[in-house]
Amino acid sequence: MNNFERFQTFVLQQSAAKDGAISPPIIGSAAFSYGDPKSAEAVFAGESRKPLYARMGNPTNAKLETLLAGIDQGDGAVVTSSGMGAIAAVVSAFLQSGDEIVCVGGLFGGTYAFFTQNLPRFGIKVRFFKADEEVVLSPQTKMIFCESVGNPSLTVVNFVKLGKLAQKHGILFVVDNTITPLLFEPFSWGADIIVYSTTKVISGQSQALGGAIIYKEPRKDLFIHFPFLQNFYENLGKDAIMGVIKKRALRDFGMSMQAHAAYLTILGLETLPLRIQKATDNAQKLFLALKDKVKVLYAKNEQYFPFGTGQMMGIDFKSKEDAFTFLEHAKIPFITANIGDSRTLALHMRSTIYRDFKANELEYLGVSEGLVRISVGLENCAMIIEDFENALRKVQ
After folding, report:
1. What CATH number is attached to the domain comprising 67?
2. Is 285 helix (H, G, I), strand (E, B) or coil?
3. CA nearest neighbour of 151 among 328, 284, 347
4. What's the whole-number average pLDDT of the chain?
5. Residues 256, 345: one domain?
6. 8 A C-beta contact, residue 210 and residue 82
7. Which of 224, 189, 213 is nearest to 57 (CA)?
8. Angstrom distances, CA of residue 96 to CA of 32, 87, 90, 182
9. Which residue from 116, 142, 151, 225 has the highest number of Cβ atoms inside 10 Å of its Cβ?
10. What's the whole-number mean pLDDT along residues 74-96?
11. Contact 344/384 with Cβ under 8 angstroms?
């Protein structure tokens, strides 16, 4: 049974009740009553699984967390208000002033801005390496961060090397797997924590903003750099990382997911395996149809991605004017900043998300003057190809 079939069966069997309402309930309450003082004490001591307060989670979120953990066969998950909320939660929960993050490969513009413009204000240093560069750690390095496939550079890093490096030095290895859920298994290559923007492929319908942190039982060598993690491990066992995230981030910073967003994300999960296979197949066919007509970027790596690298690709035009001409004449794509939708989406990178970045930053991030990011959807592939070819003729 492949990963798609495994999760499709799991999510459909676990997302609904066999007795009563098939659709999972939306528990919108901000507060929860504990019944009696002893129960309240048990809840706050972490001895009871009853909900404490919506900022720390609610039953709808808990249902989503169980389902999301199944994507990567993790030990658990924590959902957040957005994908950036997930990254911010991991960093703020584990790192402090004087620590360092090493980022490898291409990064989403929002992540890069967070690392370069905000973390230095709190004394956390970030160093950047290209996917093909030799990664050098320092005594202050506490975390390695990368994306499964660089957004929008479409670069793929050496996960084997990074996983071994993290384990050798007892530091966290965090992988943003937003673009490739079910297509890539970060835990198999040494990741300690996986983050997602569930807004993208996981939801698939541009209706529910959200993020997620998937974790496994922590490695014992992490306790050297993160002694507080050992304390949580003694109390929570395999869910130690969940305790760190909820008590050192969600409780104090409040990047919690809303119950209605959790509900919509659950609905999206029910078709995730079917959608990602179709969209990936469409992207691969579109790449083959266009690669001799224009410069097309699409990641390929059989070692890590035997079923493909997802629905994101890029068309690298010679100029902004050519990119605009293409987007003005292509009828199928929706021009938007999102990716991973069921619809085909497109956006010129340099004039939008990356408009304020410096030349050296654009070079590192793989954003050229004419780059158009494409998120291929579920439409009829022949129609997508015909539409793109017609628009390309207008450029030429």
Report:
1. 3.40.640.10
2. helix
3. 347
4. 95
5. no
6. yes
7. 213
8. 32, 15, 11, 32
9. 151
10. 98
11. yes
Q: Is the pLDDT assigned to residue 51 strictly greater than 90?
A: no
Predicted confidence band of residue 43 (pLDDT cuts 50, 70, 90): confident
Question: With the CA atoms of 227, 232, 235 and 237 taken in that order, what torsion angle do they form, in degrees rounded to the nearest 10?
Answer: -100
Residue 223 near residue 230 (C-beta atoms within 8 A): yes
Between the CA atoms of 372, 377, 383 and 387, what dihedral angle is there, to the nearest 10 degrees?
-20
End of a domain among 209, 243, 269? 269
Looking at the fold, whether 87 and 188 belong to one and the same domain comes out as yes
Cite the beta strand spans of 86-192 per DSSP E. 100-104, 125-129, 141-147, 172-176
CA distances (Å), origin 395, targets 1, 312, 320, 321: 45, 22, 11, 9
Residue of 154, 81, 118, 108 whose CA lies nearest to 338: 108
The verdict on 77 and 167 lying in the same domain is: yes
Query: What residues make up the domain containing 348?
Result: 272-395
User: In Å, what is the CA distance from 242 to each residue of 36, 67, 86, 138, 151?
Assistant: 26, 15, 12, 27, 27
Say what the pLDDT of residue 221 is: 96
Residues 106-125 as b/e (b if ≥16 CB within 10 A, e otherwise) read bbbbbbbbbbeeebeeeebb
Of 284, 279, 291, 280, nearest to 389 (Cα)?
291
Q: Tell me, what amino acid is at 190?
A: G
Residue 114 identity: F
The answer to whether the pTM exceeds 0.70 is yes
CATH label of the domain that carries residue 372: 3.90.1150.10
pLDDT digits (tens, 9 = 90+) for 127-176: 999 999 999 999 999 999 999 999 999 999 999 999 999 999 999 999 99
Residue at 154: amino acid letter: L
Q: Check: CB of residue 123 under 8 Å from CB of residue 97.
A: yes
The predicted pLDDT at position 258 comes to: 95
Among 81, 10, 36, smallest CA distance to 272 is for 10
Q: Which of 195, 120, 111 shows the shortest CA–CA distance to 151?
A: 111
Do 213 and 65 share a domain, yes or no? yes
CB 144 within 8 A of CB 104: yes
